[in-house]
Amino acid sequence: MEIGVFEGESLTLALPGTRAIGIDPGHQLAHQVTATARLYRETSDDFFVKHNVRKVLGGLPVDLAFIDGMHLFEFALRDFMNIEALTSENSTVMVHDCLPIDETTAARDRTTNKWSGDIWKLILCLKEYRPDLRISVVDVRPTGLAMIRGLDATSTVLADRYEEICAKYVPMPFSVLDADRDRMLNVFPDDWPQIRSLLPAEPFRSESSSASAPGRRGAAALSKRVMRRLARVGR
Ligand SMILES: C[S@@+](CC[C@H](N)C(=O)[O-])C[C@H]1O[C@@H](n2cnc3c(N)ncnc32)[C@H](O)[C@@H]1O
Questions:
Q1: What's the gap in Å between 40 CA and the centre of ligand 1?
Q2: Which range marks the domain in which residue 110 is found?
Q3: What pLDDT digit, counting tens, does each position of 39-81 carry?
């Protein structure tokens, strides 16, 4: 599941036969994506309200999600909450733009071409309210990629405290990171063997014996390509 598809470059990484879902109110698909991908031209908030997503997924959990839609904290938080409810204990959620470059490109109001917004606050928020999650922000250029594991589809902490969380985090200034950005954001080295150790042995579901379904080695290679390309294009 990808929130924020744009031209679909990242979605091309979904192999043939993958049940892939892309959500973006303004996507401009310019790449050939697998025929089994379904695109929804709507905001992620609308998507989760309007559709019976479990039915859309054919009863399967979301194995891998990439959050790269609206680059504001509260939008990314809602995307995370909506997705986590659809995951299994073996799922992975990736979030783009969690390692900001500077205050200007991380501002809530966009004034620059390159804009990561205040998504970085999601990491601080999850560390505070969901210490049960395993969070690493891989230091890939330009603005990092968070990998979140240990998901719990039954957790209601974020939903129950959503107003309190927004009141605390939306106005939070960039300067809080001055204390120790890398420690606060769980920065993780851009080193593939170390990154690989964060991922499940079989990160992608193979539903059938299709020749295109990745085996153990194939899945690892695919994950590496996903990491590299997501970091490059998701901006
Ligand atoms: C940075 S681009 C996504 C790039 C894409 N993930 C990739 O890797 O190629 C951000 C996209 O998010 C979309 N977007 C903005 N607000 C959104 C929302 N509320 N829900 C879903 N997508 C949104 C924009 O239309 C834009 O195409």
A1: 12
A2: 61-233
A3: 999 999 999 999 999 999 999 999 999 999 999 999 999 999 9
